[in-house]
Specification:
Length: 123
Protein backbone atom coordinates (compact mmCIF):
# COMPACT_ATOMS: atom_id res chain seq x y z
CA UNK A 1 0.00 0.00 0.00
CA UNK A 2 1.56 3.29 -1.00
CA UNK A 3 0.11 5.13 2.02
CA UNK A 4 1.46 2.52 4.46
CA UNK A 5 5.06 1.81 3.53
CA UNK A 6 5.86 -0.15 6.67
CA UNK A 7 9.04 -1.58 8.08
CA UNK A 8 11.15 -4.42 6.71
CA UNK A 9 13.63 -6.96 7.93
CA UNK A 10 15.68 -8.18 4.98
CA UNK A 11 17.46 -11.51 5.35
CA UNK A 12 20.14 -12.32 2.74
CA UNK A 13 21.82 -15.71 2.27
CA UNK A 14 24.38 -17.03 -0.18
CA UNK A 15 23.70 -20.65 -1.12
CA UNK A 16 25.40 -23.31 -3.21
CA UNK A 17 22.70 -23.95 -5.79
CA UNK A 18 19.06 -24.09 -6.77
CA UNK A 19 18.29 -27.12 -4.61
CA UNK A 20 19.61 -25.38 -1.50
CA UNK A 21 17.60 -22.28 -2.47
CA UNK A 22 14.41 -24.32 -2.56
CA UNK A 23 15.18 -26.01 0.75
CA UNK A 24 16.07 -22.71 2.45
CA UNK A 25 12.89 -21.01 1.20
CA UNK A 26 10.77 -23.95 2.39
CA UNK A 27 12.46 -23.97 5.81
CA UNK A 28 12.26 -20.22 6.33
CA UNK A 29 8.63 -20.11 5.15
CA UNK A 30 7.83 -22.73 7.78
CA UNK A 31 9.60 -20.62 10.42
CA UNK A 32 7.46 -17.62 9.41
CA UNK A 33 4.32 -19.76 9.66
CA UNK A 34 5.18 -21.27 13.04
CA UNK A 35 7.00 -18.43 14.80
CA UNK A 36 6.15 -15.05 13.28
CA UNK A 37 3.02 -14.56 11.17
CA UNK A 38 0.49 -14.31 14.01
CA UNK A 39 2.10 -11.27 15.70
CA UNK A 40 0.27 -7.93 15.42
CA UNK A 41 1.54 -5.82 12.54
CA UNK A 42 3.00 -8.72 10.57
CA UNK A 43 2.15 -8.18 6.89
CA UNK A 44 4.03 -10.81 4.87
CA UNK A 45 7.24 -12.64 4.14
CA UNK A 46 8.40 -12.64 0.53
CA UNK A 47 11.16 -14.89 -0.71
CA UNK A 48 13.35 -14.13 -3.71
CA UNK A 49 15.70 -16.69 -5.26
CA UNK A 50 18.37 -15.47 -7.68
CA UNK A 51 18.18 -17.07 -11.10
CA UNK A 52 21.81 -18.18 -10.85
CA UNK A 53 21.06 -20.30 -7.76
CA UNK A 54 23.43 -18.31 -5.55
CA UNK A 55 21.25 -16.10 -3.31
CA UNK A 56 18.02 -16.04 -1.32
CA UNK A 57 16.43 -12.86 0.01
CA UNK A 58 13.64 -12.92 2.57
CA UNK A 59 11.75 -9.64 3.02
CA UNK A 60 9.60 -9.61 6.14
CA UNK A 61 7.11 -6.77 6.05
CA UNK A 62 5.71 -5.20 9.22
CA UNK A 63 3.11 -2.43 9.46
CA UNK A 64 5.50 -0.35 11.55
CA UNK A 65 8.82 -0.40 13.32
CA UNK A 66 6.90 -0.40 16.61
CA UNK A 67 5.17 -3.64 15.60
CA UNK A 68 8.52 -5.20 14.75
CA UNK A 69 10.06 -4.03 18.02
CA UNK A 70 7.09 -5.45 19.93
CA UNK A 71 7.60 -8.78 18.17
CA UNK A 72 11.28 -8.72 19.17
CA UNK A 73 10.39 -7.96 22.80
CA UNK A 74 7.69 -10.57 23.34
CA UNK A 75 8.48 -13.41 20.94
CA UNK A 76 10.52 -16.49 21.76
CA UNK A 77 13.73 -15.33 20.08
CA UNK A 78 15.78 -18.15 21.54
CA UNK A 79 13.34 -20.78 20.23
CA UNK A 80 13.09 -19.12 16.83
CA UNK A 81 16.88 -18.88 16.50
CA UNK A 82 17.19 -22.55 17.45
CA UNK A 83 14.63 -23.39 14.73
CA UNK A 84 16.67 -21.37 12.22
CA UNK A 85 19.87 -23.18 13.20
CA UNK A 86 18.10 -26.53 12.90
CA UNK A 87 16.74 -25.55 9.47
CA UNK A 88 20.22 -24.54 8.27
CA UNK A 89 21.72 -27.78 9.59
CA UNK A 90 19.09 -29.78 7.70
CA UNK A 91 19.92 -28.34 4.27
CA UNK A 92 21.55 -30.64 1.75
CA UNK A 93 23.92 -27.82 0.77
CA UNK A 94 25.38 -24.75 2.41
CA UNK A 95 23.80 -21.40 3.21
CA UNK A 96 25.72 -18.47 4.66
CA UNK A 97 24.13 -15.25 5.96
CA UNK A 98 25.24 -12.11 4.11
CA UNK A 99 23.59 -9.39 6.18
CA UNK A 100 25.58 -7.32 8.63
CA UNK A 101 24.46 -5.61 11.80
CA UNK A 102 20.69 -5.33 12.04
CA UNK A 103 19.02 -6.00 8.66
CA UNK A 104 16.17 -3.54 9.25
CA UNK A 105 14.84 -0.98 6.79
CA UNK A 106 12.06 1.50 6.20
CA UNK A 107 10.75 1.99 2.69
CA UNK A 108 11.48 5.55 1.64
CA UNK A 109 10.15 5.58 -1.90
CA UNK A 110 8.03 3.50 -4.23
CA UNK A 111 7.36 4.07 -7.91
CA UNK A 112 3.87 2.98 -8.94
CA UNK A 113 2.82 1.92 -12.45
CA UNK A 114 1.99 4.77 -14.78
CA UNK A 115 0.32 5.15 -18.14
CA UNK A 116 1.15 2.24 -20.40
CA UNK A 117 3.02 2.94 -23.60
CA UNK A 118 1.78 1.29 -26.74
CA UNK A 119 3.92 0.70 -29.79
CA UNK A 120 6.93 2.38 -28.24
CA UNK A 121 10.03 1.19 -26.52
CA UNK A 122 10.57 2.43 -23.01
CA UNK A 123 13.42 4.79 -22.51
Amino acid sequence: MPDEPGFYSIIDYTVDGARTQQELVAAFAEIQEQWVRFYPGYRSARFFASVDGARVYNLIHWASEADYRHFEEVSDTEGRMAAIQQALAGLSGTAEPRMTNEPRYVMVRQVEPGPQRTGETAG
